[in-house]
UniProtKB/TrEMBL annotation:
Signal sequence, start to end: none
Pfam families: DHHA1
Name the record gives this protein: Phosphoesterase DHHA1
The DHHA1 domain, residue ranges: 230-315
Native species: Candidatus Nitrosotenuis uzonensis
Chain segments annotated as transmembrane: none
Tree of life domain: Archaea
A Gene Ontology molecular function term of the record: nucleic acid binding
Length: 316
């Protein structure tokens, strides 16, 4: 529910197969699956763009295996780094896995179910690839070539700002899924450009806040975010710190945790997703993601020990 790849993959699944959409973030993933485990009407389940961590991967396999025994057809589509042993266990449970770390999730959904999708779905997939910094990958780049690049860039940006700005409005996020599944362009969604402008103005003020509050360690820059999303600020933290890694974190009062966004520069040679997956578990949290873009969920009282440990690991 937090980015365009997740929302867009949900939209294409809805267009191809219908059914109900459940949007979750990482803290909400396992509770949502546990709820589905008791849904007697469930016949098929598609899980998209939700990577696993050492903290939840075994429970994930357990719940999906239980659903499979109840004759639920399950397809898992993702592009995050996954433990090969977990893939083997899912395959053993007869769960269909579509997994490629080199393409964003929506592009994989489009490629797998193209025959059930409209021509417009290619544009939605291209926008998702842009927002996940994967528009240069083989399938993603071919889709982007179909369209005017600037048109795709502004559409992807407007979509992203509407998603980020409505994280506390789940009904609106479901509305976005519905609009995209009906082959609407982002600019055709009422007030989308106006709301994107509001988000741009907020981000502009964020630059000054980062300049004032940014803190640095030897190998990273970090900052707590108060009145915006961590994912929207983390690139400013990375760029303005002059370090190879930027960390932005925001308190989730409802869960007693910090949601952490981490980004690496082009010169960062460490796979941050794998490092954070392992490190977060040591602090009672979970995390993971891509080589230069990942996230974590860390207990509130462990945030600074986690950041200090990350700084140390980056030096090894």
């Amino acid at each position: 529910m937090e980015d365009a790849d997740g929302i867009s993959s949900a939209a294409l699944i809805r267009q191809a197969f219908g059914g109900e959409t459940v949007l979750v973030d990482y803290p909400g993933l396992m509770p949502a699956l546990e709820a589905l485990e008791h849904d007697e009407k469930l016949k098929s389940l598609y899980i998209c763009d939700l990577g696993l961590s050492k903290n939840n991967q075994d429970q994930f396999v357990e719940i999906l295996s239980s659903l499979k025994k109840k004759k639920v057809a399950i397809t898992y589509v993702d592009h995050h780094d996954i433990d090969p042993e977990i893939i083997k266990k899912l395959q053993k449970a007869k769960i269909k896995i579509i997994h490629d770390v080199n393409e964003c999730t929506t592009v994989q959904v489009y490629a797998a179910f193209k025959s059930k999708l409209s021509d417009h779905a290619a544009f939605i997939a291209a926008c998702a690839a842009i927002t996940d910094y994967m528009e240069d990958r083989p399938k993603g780049s071919r889709l982007l070539q179909i369209y005017d690049r600037q048109f795709a860039l502004i559409s992807a940006t407007v979509l992203t700002y509407n998603i980020v700005g409505h994280q506390k409005d789940p009904d609106y996020l479901l509305y976005l899924v519905e609009m995209l599944s009906e082959s609407k362009y982002p600019h055709e969604i009422p007030n989308s450009f106006e709301f994107a402008q509001i988000q741009v103005e907020k981000l502009a003020t964020m630059i000054e806040k980062v300049k004032k509050s940014l803190k640095k360690m030897k190998n990273l820059g970090y900052m707590e975010i108060i009145d915006a999303g961590a994912s929207g600020a983390v690139n400013f933290v990375l760029g303005l710190s002059g370090k190879d890694v930027g960390v932005a974190y925001k308190e989730r009062v409802d869960h007693g945790i910090y949601a952490v966004s981490i980004r690496g520069s082009k010169s960062c040679s460490i796979h941050l997703g794998r490092l954070v997956n392992s490190l977060a578990q040591d602090f009672g949290g979970s995390g993971g993601g891509h080589d230069k873009a990942c996230g974590a969920v860390i207990p509130k009282d462990k945030i600074m020990p986690f950041i200090k440990a990350l700084n140390t690991k980056l030096n090894q």
